[in-house]
Design brief:
It contains nine helices and eleven strands. It is an alpha+beta fold. It folds into two domains: about 130 residues; about 80 residues, no CATH class. The strands form three sheets. A six-stranded antiparallel beta sheet has the order 6-7-11-8-9-10, with helices on one face. A hairpin with a 2-residue loop joins strand 8 and strand 9. Helix 2 runs antiparallel to helix 9 and helix 3 packs across helix 6. It is globular and about 50 Å long. The protein starts with 6 loop residues before the first helix and ends with a strand.
Length: about 280
């Protein structure tokens, strides 16, 4: 005998099926969220003009360029020109190869008088050489970014520097310290070490001073004469945290932690007089 189901029974069955599917999707989503979070190594820059993601080495290079520019008391536009150049030439990596004998962040050539290959491969040295050449360019502050960069580099395709102006402005705002709390980095956790690696705060300070020229230090603290300089130092420290085993960087009431680098800067007790490393 053929059974007939009423419309009401069919409706109830349909509702039960929909609810079952919904519950299954919800349970799956909760289980996915419950999985341990594995951060991706890298750095993130966020300013009012936009956001960019960098490899850790790229962030270290960007931080070094900003600090060397601060040492030379250059305007932010000079930093922007340097970033646009470095992005085009090496994508902000300290590369060991290039066209003919070009190497390093700015693809400088030993045969063209930029220095020995060993020196050019030092980002602090190569950045200083770039800025030394840039300040000799007449009216470089008023020139289009690409024209100023080309006056230094004398590249076959100088027009290409203009393509990176927007990225360069975002990086400059963050790494010069003009925009606070703009740089955060995350490290992929490796095998747990017991005891945990000791933070090399002294070595970090020496590395900073080598690029910055001078800074007053006291234990794990670095003096900040003003907020912009403090955030410049903080950005450099976060970018180099993995290299020096730094677990926290704190300044002006905010703290970045290596354990939760993906969360950015959180409220802390640091003053606006010192950048504190630990």
């Amino acid at each position: 005998m053929r059974r007939r189901f009423s419309l009401g029974v069919l409706t109830i069955a349909a509702i039960v099926i929909v609810l079952a599917v919904g519950i299954a999707v919800g349970v799956y989503t909760l289980l996915r969220k419950a999985e341990p979070f594995v951060p991706t190594a890298g750095c993130h820059v966020k300013t009012p003009d936009g956001e960019r993601t960098l490899d850790i080495e790229q962030a270290q290079i960007a931080a070094t360029i900003a600090v060397v520019g601060a040492r030379r008391k250059l305007p932010e536009r000079a930093i922007v020109i340097a970033y646009a150049t470095a992005i085009q030439e090496s994508k902000l990596f300290n590369v060991t190869y290039g066209d003919r004998d070009s190497v390093g962040v700015f693809q400088q050539r030993e045969s063209q008088g930029w220095g020995s290959k060993k020196k050019i491969m030092d980002p602090v040295y190569s950045t200083n050489k770039f800025f030394a050449a840039l300040v000799k360019v007449k009216n470089y502050r008023k020139l289009p970014i690409a024209d100023a960069a080309q006056a230094v580099q004398r590249s076959a395709g100088g027009y290409a520097y203009a393509d990176h102006e927007a990225d360069a402005r975002i990086l400059a705002a963050a790494f010069t310290g003009r925009v606070p709390k703009a740089v955060r980095c995350t490290f992929v956790p490796g095998k747990k070490q017991t005891p945990a690696p000791t933070p090399k705060t002294g070595e970090a300070q020496k590395g900073l001073i080598r690029a910055l020229g001078a800074a007053e230090t006291d234990g794990g603290r670095i003096s900040a004469p003003n907020a912009k300089r403090g955030w410049l130092i903080a950005a450099w420290s976060v970018a180099h945290a993995e290299r020096y085993n730094l677990r926290t960087v704190a300044f002006d009431g905010a703290t970045w932690s290596a354990d939760r680098g993906q969360d950015g800067w959180k409220a802390g007790k640091a003053t606006n007089r010192h950048v504190e490393l630990s």
